[in-house]
Design a protein that fits this description.
Oligomer: single chain
Low-confidence stretches: none
Largest sheet: 7 strands, mixed
Mean pLDDT: 89
Strand content: 15-25%
Structural class: alpha/beta
Length: about 300
């Protein structure tokens, strides 16, 4: 049966691409390292590494084994961390995973409040462009808690944080600035070239979906690699953008319109199993402090609501 030490050897050899460098990092002799890799290959029933003249490359079996090896090592580390911090909240490390937009719009004030309360606990943040990647990383044991859209078919605990609103961003001198301040049908922008998100970003899928429901495929003015760039590019006049309302600051100088029909998604915090005390404490603070719809966006929604 494979041991954690053997899995660590395998991952280190693959990451360094060299038995020599891996042996140095692991503080073992190269013959001992090679022996353990051969023992692991024998245990699993086939070669895991292909030894090339100037590199080491995983075989197809090695590529299949690697994600599980990494997950096992990560889970082992979390086990030791949980044991160390079980006595209290004075130290340790918490790994939090999320999607790009949440780390921009929701997490900063939560992390500020956490640091004031628990200065000895380090937060390690992992960011992902797509909710599917976030869920896969969480399932692979790469974080203690995930924050993002509702996970599909998730078997662990899930806590709702609120419903996120999206807004359409336009430049302040857009012709629509002279029209009544009310929700804007996406179809009214069908002939515009849009600020779109880079392929692989979950917000790119969302924009395509809502535009398709409105009866058109959005043209592309520019692809924004960074989520935070989308509202700035839209305000600069490159094209309309659909952005999570909570990443738009209160002093933003662009034109904001709520889409009609509304574009919303539920944000959640979720874990694989029953969380330990430190994770539970962070989740409780997150539920209290997370501002899913900021006050200036609530005011915008009130102002753009049709009169009764």
């Amino acid at each position: 049966m494979a041991t954690l030490r053997q899995l660590e050897y395998l991952v280190t050899v693959v990451d360094t691409g060299s038995f020599t460098q891996a042996a140095e990092l692991l503080h073992v002799t190269q013959p001992a390292l090679s022996h353990q890799i051969r023992a692991l290959e024998s245990s699993l029933g086939g070669p895991l590494l292909e030894r090339l003249p100037r590199a080491i490359r995983p075989t197809p079996m090695g590529r299949a084994v690697l994600p599980h090896a990494r997950a096992a090592l990560a889970e082992s580390e979390r086990l030791h961390t949980a044991a160390r911090r079980a006595a209290g909240l004075e130290g340790g490390e918490l790994e939090v995973a999320t999607v790009y937009s949440v780390s921009l719009g929701i997490l900063p004030p939560v992390l500020r409040a956490w640091r004031r309360r628990h200065p000895g606990v380090r937060i390690r943040l992992r960011e992902y462009p797509h909710a599917d990647q976030l869920q896969a990383a969480m399932a692979a044991g790469q974080a203690d808690l995930a924050i993002g859209p509702s996970p599909a078919g998730w078997e662990g605990p899930v806590r709702d944080l609120g419903i996120e609103e999206f807004v359409i961003v336009l430049p302040s001198d857009d012709p629509l600035a002279d029209t009544p301040a009310e929700p804007l049908a996406l179809g009214a922008l069908a002939d515009r070239a849009w600020v779109r998100y880079a392929p692989g970003n979950g917000l790119a899928d969302l924009l395509d979906q809502v535009c398709r429901q409105a009866g058109f495929q959005p043209q592309t003015a520019v692809h924004a690699e960074q989520t935070s760039a989308a509202p700035l590019l839209a305000a600069a006049g490159l094209g309309p953008a659909l952005v999570p309302a909570n990443i738009v600051p209160s002093d933003f100088d662009g034109l904001l319109r709520l889409p009609d029909p509304p574009v919303r998604r539920t944000l959640t915090a979720y874990t694989r199993t029953r969380p330990d005390p430190l994770t539970t404490t962070f989740a409780d603070l997150l539920a209290r402090q997370a501002c899913v719809v900021p006050a200036h966006i609530q005011a915008l929604a009130t102002a753009q609501s049709p009169a009764p």
